[in-house]
Design goal:
Blueprint: E1 5-11, E2 23-28, H1 31-40, H2 53-63, E3 69-74, H3 77-83, E4 86-94, E5 106-111, E6 117-121, H4 126-137, E7 144-148, H5 162-174, E8 178-181, H6 184-189, E9 197-205, E10 211-223, E11 226-227, E12 245-254, H7 267-284, H8 289-296, H9 308-322, E13 332-341, E14 344-355, E15 358-369, H10 376-393, E16 400-401, E17 404-405, E18 423-428, H11 443-458
Parallel strand pairs: 6-7, 10-12, 15-18
Antiparallel strand pairs: 1-2, 3-12, 4-9, 5-6, 5-8, 9-10, 10-11, 13-14, 14-15, 16-17
Amino acid sequence: DLPGITHAFVVEGTDDLSGLMPGVALVGETWWAVNSAREKLQVEWATTHSDSSEGFAAEANRLAGTPGAVQRHDGDVDAAMDAAAKVVEASYYYPFVSHCNLEPQVATALYHESGRLEMWAPTQNPRGARGLIARTLGMPEENIHIELERIGGGFGRRLTHDYMVETAWIARVVKKPIQLQWTREDDLQHDHYRPAAWHHFRAGIGSDGRMSAFDHHFITFGRNGKTVSGAGLSPRHYPAGLVPNFRLRQSIIDCNVPTGPWRSPGHSAYCWAYQSFFDEVALAAERDQLAFRLDLLSKAYGEPPLDLARTAGTLRKAAEAAGWGRDPGPNRGLGLAFHFDHGSFVSHVAQVHAEGKRIRVEKLWSGIDCGPVINLSGATNQVEGAIVDALSTAQLEITFANGAAEQSNFSDYMLATIDQAPEVECHFIQSDFPPMGMGEPPIAPATPAMANAIYAATGVRIREQPWRKAGIIV
């Protein structure tokens, strides 16, 4: 009998991690009344799993010593490694991260006595939301009307609709207009995270300085023998098709953590691992990093995994704009990376300044081929936002203990601030190719370009995220 509270009931929920989860619903006259009552709520929660970051790391370490399941094998990797003039090995790890969109999850619903449901929500996929609500509530899709609101940040989080089906269920019980608004703590601790992963690489270098073999053991997350959402890696991903001997092996860690698409969606993570390792291989081969990449893109073995000429064009454009090969000055370094996703080709050159291990990312030069660009300011804004997002996320991690996320707010999951944002100079390659994506492609190569620049400035090779694990402070 708390003031302002009108309803309190248990929602049994389902076992769908992307759907209606079990819980307790409190409904009141104001958000503050409900949140105050929530703080007094005493619930004995059942523990359904005890997933932890420590347990994941131990299992990943065990799996690293196993062969893994072969996903693709071109040529004879083992023979090529034995014949290589030099073999380079390195392992990379990145953690779970949150979407952390600035507007936490929110939706409004009204259930009519006629059986019609009206909803107002910022969703990236209203059709998917309507289907989930229809299945969960057992009602026809045509009875559900969703009014699409402006999205206060999505980045893939609002492709899942747990917050909408919660609102719909409560509205049907209460039969009054219901607005559900998650707190920041709700949002960070009940996200559909970008999955962590471990990449164990080996590359053979021939006497000509090219990669003759590439062996990759990818350790990722799954459920029931299949990778969970956001945790898969295509067997066609470069350097497949760019080296004569290529092998991709995969091992899966069982995971009960909800995961989902995250900006680009997984490219933002594994591009950092690939492009950082490419730098290691180039330096081991005693070759310039730009020349090494252009050489890699000069020849395909079978069907290439991306348009080689367009990719190389963006590399040349960014390198020319940045003056690649120049001395950037004392305590400074340059780094570069390329990538392709969502139909667009993007390369970055980054310049950083180091004071010990404290880093200032000063500037990025970007070469971009996304087809014809009509709204130049809009396209530039997308590139700038993606680069800041990449810099921010490289400093962050979500960890788990006893089946729950440990981070809860900006006090322990601090996004980048405006004073950390670098200058960005965009160079678009206008072409007659169909216009393609620009909101996601720039983020993937930004992280390795900055990390490679940090190595050039400090000699510290970052193989784990967040960067502070290597002692790097931004």
